[in-house]
Amino acid sequence: MTRIHGLVLIGSLVLGGGTASAGPLQWSGDDIPVACRMYSGIPADAHGSPLEWNNLLSLASCMQDASVTTVTDPAQLAPYVEAMADALAPEMMIYLGALEFGPGTVQLRASYHVGMAYIALITRARSSLVAPADLGTNVEAANHYRRLHADLEPMLVRAKRTAWVAFAVIEHAVAEDPTLAPDAVTRHMVATARAMLAALLRDGTPHLYDYRIAH
Q1: CA distance 82 to 32
Q2: Which of 53, 39, 173 lies closest to 108, judged by CA?
Q3: How many structural domains does the chain have?
Q4: Are 115 and 167 in contact (CB under 8 A)?
C-alpha cells in the first residue's frame, strides 16, 4: 500500500506533540450530531473498503463547526481561538486515523481536509472581528479594530503552519506518485492545495513554513 511521507509531522502539529490513537476510532451515536449520523453506519462487509473511508471523511467534514462569534474585547481573542481549535478535535481524530490507517489516496484526501479545516478556522477567526460602522470617521474605533487584528494574527500561526504542512505533503506526495490523484475530484484537491500554499506564503513570512517532508 502506498504511504505518504510527512504524515507524522501533520499529526504532531494537530495534536500539539501528542500521539495518535493506536487503532481506528470507534464512535457511539451520542458522539455524532443527528445530521451527520447517515455517515456513521456501513454494512459489516464494507469495513476497510472505500465506502468506509468515504463515510469517515464525510462524517468528519459534516461534524465541522462553521459558526462565527463576534469578538470586540482583546481578552476574548485567545479563548475564542483556543475554543475553535478544541472544537476541531473530533474530526481531526478521524482525519488522523485515516492518515495512519488508510491507503495512499485516502491519506491524501485526509491531509487536504486537515489543511482546509485550519484555513476555515483562520477565516472564521478573522471574520469574528467586525468593522465598526463608523470605521472611516471614528479614529478610536478604527484604532481598536486594527489592534484586534494585530493581536489576533500571532494566535493563528499554529493554524497556518498546520495548513501549510498538510498542503505541502499533498504536493510532495503527488510529485512522487501521480497515481495518488487518479480522478478529477482528487486532482482538484491537489490544485487547490497548491493554490493554498501560494496564498499562505502571501499571507505570512516564509520562515513560518520552513518544514521538511521526510523521505
Answers
A1: 22
A2: 173
A3: 1
A4: yes
DSSP string, 24-82: -----GGGS-GGGGGGS---GGGTTSHHHHHHHHHHHHHH---------SHHHHHHHHH
**Is 215 part of a structural domain of the chain?**
no
Within a domain: 200: yes
Q: Which residue in the block uniquely carries the three cell numbers 465506502?
A: 51
Q: Does residue 1 sit within a domain?
A: no
Q: Kindly report whether the global pTM for this prediction surpasses the value 0.90.
A: no
Residue 87 falls within a domain, yes or no?
A: yes
Q: Could you tell me if 116 and 92 are in contact, meaning their C-beta atoms sit under 8 angstroms apart?
A: no
C-alpha cell at 197: 500554499
Question: For the segment 87-142, what is each residue's pLDDT rounded down to a tens digit?
Answer: 998 889 889 888 888 888 899 999 999 999 999 999 999 999 988 888 888 899 99
The pair phi, psi for residue 72, each rounded to 5°, is -120, -15
Range of the domain at 162: 7-209
Q: pLDDT tens-digit profile of 141-192?
A: 999 999 999 999 999 999 998 999 899 989 988 998 899 898 999 999 999 9
